[in-house]
Amino acid sequence: VIARALTAPWNVRAHVRAWLTARLPRTDTQLLTQGNVYILPTRAGWMFALTLVVLLLASVNYQLNLGYVLTFLLAGSGVVSMHITHGTLRGLTLRLRPVAPAFSGGTAVLDVVMSSPSSARFGIGLRLLEAPASTLAWTNVAAGGQATAHVSFVPPRRGLHDVPTLSAESRFPLGLFRAWTVWRPVARLLVYPAVEVDAPALPAARPVSGATLEARRSVGGQIEGVRAYRRGDPLKLIAWKKAAQAIETGAELVSRDTSTSARQELWLDWAACGRLAPEQRLSRLAAWTLAADRADTAYGLRLPGIEIEPGDGDAQRAHCLEALALWSLATPGEHR
Amino acid sequence: VNAAALADGTRRAIAYWPGWKRLPREARDTMFLLAVIAWIVLPHAPHLPAWSLSLSAAVLLWRGRLALINGALPGRWVLIGVLVVAIGLTFWSYRTLLGKEPGVTLAVALMALKTLELRARRDAFVVFFLGFFIILTHFLYSQSMPVAIAMLVSVWGLLTALVLAHMPVGQPSLAQASGLAARTALLGAPVMVLLFVLFPRMGPLWGVPQDGVSKTGLSNTMKMGSMTEVASDDSVAMRIRFDGPVPPPAQMYFRGPVLTHFDGIEWTPIGLPFASPSIPSRAPALETSGTPLSYEATLEPLRLASVPLLEATTDIAPVDGYRIVARDDLQWLAERPVFERLRVQAIASTTFVLGAPRRPGELQDSLELPVGFNPRTLAWARAFREERRGASASGLAEALLRHIRKQGFSYTLSPGDYGRNAVDEFWFDRKEGFCEHFAAAFVVIMRAAGVPARIVTGYQGTDLPPVDGYYVVRQSSAHAWAEFWQAGTGWVRADPTGAVAPDRIGRSARLAPPPGFVAGTLDAMNPLLFAELRSTWEAFSNRWNRWVLNYSRGQQLDVLKQIGFATPTWEDLGVLLIGSLSALALAGAIWAWLDRHRVDPWVRQLERMKRALVRVGVPAAPHEPPRALATRVRATLGSAGEPLAALLDALEARRYGRAAAKRPDPAMTRDFTSAARRLRTLTPR
């Protein structure tokens, strides 16, 4: 946002907007109050006001007392609708769920949980501040309940980005006013390189030395035991039977500890990508990483300056993709 | 065959109709909006040309079918074509596109066509706003209570459709949406009442709406049968108090519009129906005799520029806000229609002669008859004249009145509909009617006999002599009589109704209209119940008239007096209005401001506990639940922290356990903070 405004210094509106947005504190849980919910009449609202003026003039000119009644009834409803529109957002809590990494050129999804401490709320739309109104994701929130809205967008390029500024709005009930809020979550979004389409087949894997193979085989990839839950453990690894007990006693969750069979190992190498441009090499390596993960083989990754030991599973995949995402970006997050 | 086809079509349509609940959301909302539109347009049926009704019905049905079968909307050019046709037909029907009727016709056509173009949100709003406008146009025809109720339902329907349009998620039920719409309108009702009571009433801003408002009193035109409504309306038209002698009731003629021009169907006045300030008015050539009467008249709003005053009022005191002058036809006219209660001090003489015409051609106008209407009456009148060759105008009038008395004419308030040659029909075939039939026949015959004559409308007679000195003239006393020109004297009043129903003139007892079917049945079943219902209804109706229909500047100032203004003025009204609106807005702002400190009570409780924990040296992150805090308290403080940990566990159970409570327990917070304080004093850090 800031960068764009700076490149176009004559665009005062964008400047002001960027300045206003930058002033907002970043938070993942936003309570909407009088202070951060804005409201203005919509075009339909102005049209409604014009209609009221016409109705009032007709009532005055034709001396219609019922015309006055109609005009003032509509005016009263309009005023009340302003309060209802504002009240639809006010008091609402927006919370951003942990953001899953996305691929560049793919779709990133932000899950926003809206919770209403009081009454039911209807017609709350959520979108990126920069996105057009047609991308609004609509939600109702039940009284005292929660609802999740999913905002999806296409992240620009790889790297660790700030989650874009979000905007929630409502026109309920009559559409005469639009109340909105602008929210800058503190969470960051990890964007992996774009996956190369129709990437060449994986390089050949090399078998590892026999001793390691034997040791691994003796356990056959079965459960060896449990360990404490680590952030990022896939759900299928959690020992759910023990989990209930653990929660009851206030203890931590436990995950299964598995050793995986690793008969062969595979190196995904920067140097093996031929004479491609750096970004394209990263794309190819990302595609290979996914392919290797699907093939369930152990694989390692070699980038200039980085070497990741062979391994497999979700953690390995995430580790490799993250390395690809952040490679040679001096300070992650600069590229916004 | 037609009926069978219709029945068949209806059956098929019913079989096709899946019911509100089964319709897909989009189709249901569209059908609902179409139903609301039909409901809004339907009461206009009597005022709209047949093609307009058929066009609207066809378009709405077509749109409904498209919604049901999920068909594609027609292209823009089709719509423009239909619109051009509608405009052409409107012009063909009215010879103009301006004015009330063409405007309503066009608005209805436009709204029906717009439903075929409901694509974007903007289109929907156009339909809504046109709908509000058409609702207003109903009040041009009638402001009665049933119309008001029907239009309230219309507004509710439109608001419901608006609310539905702004509930984009799921399939909200119609009941839910209409409940939300009703809530919005009800919460807005105080604003409505405030504005209605205090918004300063003013005169029309431009133009003089002659055709605008449906009137319950006199009007500037007369058609056969148009006065039945007045005759059965018992509301008060004016109250008269005489300062000195009181004239006999038979002399109490209150002169309203004078109708000279006759096109065969309708009688209309000649000249402007109001006193144009730019044209100096010609004073009547009036000679009076006898002692002048001084009186005070309080006139209810008649929505006419004509002020019906006692014949012949010679002078009136100036009236605040209006310039009321006498014209050469002895009418008192204001410069614009009077929409509020007027109080007039005046002097009159009931014995008078309205002399020489002041306007060239006045007598000629009073002789004209339309060609091709009432041929039998005209022939009869010529023969009547031939028989009395040489008789004066007065002599002819006497003979005519005698004829009416002798030939079995009767007075009735419900003579039924008359056809094109209404006077022929009345004079020869049916021989029954009320004042306007008699007056019209009299004037037509006099003119055909070569005597200038014209119709005068107004009121005649009052209620029984009052106890408090105020004579009450009711709308049911509306009357029409005739005036003919007697050479050498001037205009002479002749009341042919008096010839057949002397009771009607000079008495307070009037013929009551025959009861309708429902009233008749009720009356036969239980007269007492009927009387009670009637009196309740009348009381309600009176209140409606007083507080809604006739609420004007005078009443506004009365309201101000009631709430303590000694001498209220227009400015007070404005100040009060702006003041109370500001107070309301301020209250709304304060409410919203107080509301901003509203936090979920559970969150507030946990935050207070966390602050207390931090003070005793246990770190607490914002995201941590009570369970995690309890674990940490046990780990860092050991047994000393056990009370705190227990309370945290209790909080966890209270909020998330099996028997979770709805609200936090404030005692828990108190116990926790005091326990934390004790802990701090025991183990100083």
Give me a quick take on this structure.
Chain A contains eight helices and 18 strands.
Layout of secondary structure:
The complex is a heterodimer of chains A (336) and B (685).
Chain A: H1 2-7, H2 12-23, E1 29-31, E2 38-41, H3 43-62, H4 65-89, E3 93-96, E4 102-103, E5 108-115, E6 121-128, E7 137-141, E8 146-153, E9 159-162, E10 166-170, E11 177-183, E12 188-192, E13 206-207, H5 210-219, E14 223-228, H6 240-249, E15 254-258, E16 264-269, H7 278-295, E17 298-303, E18 306-311, H8 313-326
Parallel strand pairs in A: 4-12, 16-17
Antiparallel strand pairs in A: 1-3, 2-11, 3-5, 5-8, 6-7, 6-10, 9-12, 10-11, 13-16, 14-15, 17-18
Helix pairs in contact in A: 3-4, 7-8
Chain B: H1 2-16, H2 25-41, H3 50-69, H4 76-94, H5 100-114, H6 121-141, H7 145-165, H8 174-198, E1 222-223, H9 228-231, E2 236-242, E3 253-259, E4 261-262, E5 266-268, E6 286-289, E7 293-299, E8 306-307, E9 309-310, E10 313-316, E11 325-326, E12 332-333, E13 342-348, E14 351-354, H10 362-365, H11 375-387, H12 393-406, E15 410-411, H13 422-430, E16 432-433, H14 435-448, E17 453-460, E18 471-474, E19 478-486, E20 490-494, H15 496-500, H16 517-525, H17 527-549, H18 553-562, H19 570-595, H20 601-615, H21 626-637, H22 642-656, H23 666-682
Parallel strand pairs in B: 15-16
Antiparallel strand pairs in B: 1-5, 2-7, 2-18, 3-9, 3-17, 4-5, 6-14, 7-13, 8-12, 10-13, 11-12, 17-19, 19-20
Helix pairs in contact in B: 2-3, 2-7, 3-5, 4-5, 5-6, 6-7, 7-8, 8-19, 11-14, 13-14, 16-17, 20-23, 21-22, 22-23
